[in-house]
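Sequence only, no structure available. Ideas?
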Amino acid sequence: MAHYTLRCVECGQIYDDSDKGFLLDCPENHGPSMLQADYSVPGFEPVETAKGFYRYQHWLPIRRTFARAPKTVVFQSDAFCDRLGLENLYFAFNGYWPEREGGMPTCSFKELEAASVLARIPKGEERTIVVSSAGNTGRAFLEYASQFKINTMVVVPEFALPQMWTTVPKADCVKLVVLKDADYFDAIQLANHICELEPFFAEGGAKNVARRDGMGTVILAAAEAMKTIPHHYFQAVGSGTGAIAAWEMAWRLMADGIYGQWLPRLHLSQSESFTILADAWAAQSRDLPEIPEDEARAAALKAYSPVLSNRKPSYSLTGGLFDAMSECAGLFYVPTDEQARKAGELFQELEGIDLDKAAQVCLASLFIAKENGALGEDHAILVNLTGGGAERAHADGIVIPATPDYVFTKAQDNLDDIRKVLGL
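Reply:
I predicted one. C-alpha cells follow.
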C-alpha cells in the first residue's frame, strides 16, 4: 500500500502490507512484538469531505472507505465538570445517542475497529476473515460485514449471544459461531483453530494495525475538539488494545506538534472480579500473574463487564500494554461493581443516555482518580466511554437479534470436529 508501511517495534524491520490478506507478525526470529503503521503523510491532515472517522484516513491502514463510517462524539458535560471541579473534563462517547449525533448504532467503539479492519481487506478477497469476541467487537463486525457483504465469521462464547445483534439484516456471507460453556479466551482458541483451515484467515486482534489505529482515532477526534492532546486518558480495558491504540496515536500527534508535545497519562480500569492486568501492573511486572485455568475462567465469567475479562491480554509483548503504561506513567483502578453501577446511573441521570458496563467501570475510575488527587483542576482530561445507548437502541426498535449459524462445545474444538460442524 502506497500510503503506509509496517514497522516491527522489536527489530525495526520495515514491510509493505500484503496484497492478499494482511501482515500481523514480524517474520524475523525474535520474541512477540507489535507491528506499527508508518504513514506517508506525517502531519495531522483530516480529510474534511470524508464521513465519520474516515476524515482521519491518512492515518488509517486501509485500502478503501465505506459509505457508512462510525463517529466519536466528544463533548463537555457542565454537570460533571461542576460536580468534580474539573474545568477541562471531556467525554468521548462511542455509541448510539441521536440527540448528540452519536453515530455508532451497535453502541460500542468497536465499530471503529470493524470499519477500519474490513476496509484493510483487498477488494475481491474470497476468503473469510475470522473474528473472536466477548460481545461488542462481534456485534460491530456482524453489522459492517453484513452491510458491505464481506465474508466474515464471528466466534463468541455462549454468554455473549444476547449481545449479538445488528441494525441491518445479517448477510448470508456473515456467519455467527457460538461456543457453549466457554469464556472469551476459549472463543479465541476456537477462532485460531478455525483459521488453520481453508478458506479462513485470522483478523489478528490487537496485532492488527487497522484495529488499533481505528480505535486510536478517538484521540484524534478528542484533540480536534479539545484543541490539545489530553493530559489524562481514561478507559476500561480487557485486552488493552484500546489503550495501546491511544498511546500510539498520541505519539503521532506529539510528533506533529499542532496540539502539544506530550503523551497522555493512561488511567485504566478493570472489573473487581477479574484484575489480571491491574495485578500485573501493581507488581510492576512485564509478566502476567499465573492463574489456574479454572480459576481464571470462573473469575472472567463473574466480571461485572465480561468484555473486560481477556485471560491473555496484549500486555507483555514488545509494543504492548506494559510498554504503553511504562512510557505514560500509567495508573490502574479496580472500582467495585457497586461503584460502577452508581457511576452509570449518575451519567444516565445527568446526561440522559445509558452506558454499557465497561464504560461504567471507566467512569467510576474517574471519581477514584479525583479523590486520590491524581488530576489537576486545569488538566485536559479525556474519558473514553467505549459504549452506550443500547437501552435506547432497543427502545427505538432498531435492533435485529442474530441467531447462531454454528454451535460448538469445547470438546469439538479440534480440527476434525471443526470440519464436520462447518461442513468442510
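The longest helix spans residues 209-226.
Hope that gets you unstuck.
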